[in-house]
Amino acid sequence: MRPIAFSIGSLDIYWYGILMASTFVAAYCIVRYLARHHKLNVSVIEDLFFVGAFTGLIGSRVGAILPDLPYYIANPVDIFARGGMASHGAIIAIMIVGHFYVRKHKLNYWQISDLAAPILPVGHIFIRLGNFLSGELYGPPTDLPWGVTFPGMTQAVHPSQLYEVAAALIILPFAWKWAKKPRYHGYAFLRVLFLHSLVRFFLDFIRQHSALYGPFVLTQLIALAICLITLPIIIVLDRRHRNGKTKFPPAASKS
Predict the structure, then answer these.
(1) What is the mean pLDDT of residues 205-214?
(2) Distance between CA 73 and CA 95 in Å, rounded?
(3) What per-residue string of b and e applies to 160-181 under the rule 16 or more CB within 10 Å gives b?
(4) Three-state SS across 113-131?
């Protein structure tokens, strides 16, 4: 594994940065395609994408800080000096800001959220590959044949980053199908958010750990909370849909 992809003079270009940029490009293409597919106002959706992208960066950094908050309170300079991102922080921040954005433009929140469903697995494929190439967020030592020995190590460890990539690759085709033809608004997003959080909860047992809160790390508690919230909502909405009580409102006009 080599975290630096190439250098331009004294400037090092890291794989993580390249893959992060790839995430934004892929997300933009996905949102634009699905907005057109569902005959939504593409200009408004594009504006929401850029607002969401900026918000997600901030939220992901805040999410990375919270598990080690006492350290960052004692060393505030490291908030900017140290790296680290957290996907759940990005998701929660985007959901909050998105709520106010769609209210302003009189859009259906859950209809718009479905556009983001495929972005979750796509983002995790790119970002976890970046983590793998950077030699971070790996699991405990293992004797399994697919164990990986990262630079500076003497023993192979679980490549937990690749486990999450594999899970995202399984989720992605379902996310795409659900986002293109949701049975009701929120159908795709709620399912993908539940699956993503379920995978995160279990994989965090074999990742580098932050401070424990009982038997769990903070990201596991967040993932568990999301699962406990989304699953009952999915069950209720599915039941209402089967009873013919979930109706799509008229679609927004296409730009």
Answers:
(1) 75
(2) 26
(3) bbbbbbebbeebbebbbebbee
(4) HHHCCCHHHHHHHHHHHHH
Residue 133, pLDDT > 80, answer yes
On the question of pLDDT at 136 being above 60, the answer is yes
Calpha distance 14→6 (Å, rounded): 7
Tokens describing residue 248: 């799509």
DSSP 30-71: HHHHHHHHTT--HHHHHHHHHHHHHHHHHHHHHHHHGGGHHH
C-alpha angle with apex 99: 189 to 34, nearest 5 degrees?
Answer: 45
- Single-letter residue type at 65: I
8 Å CB contact between 178 and 188: yes
Q: Is a pLDDT exceeding 70 seen at residue 252?
A: no
pLDDT of 129 > 90? The answer is yes
CB 226 within 8 A of CB 193: yes
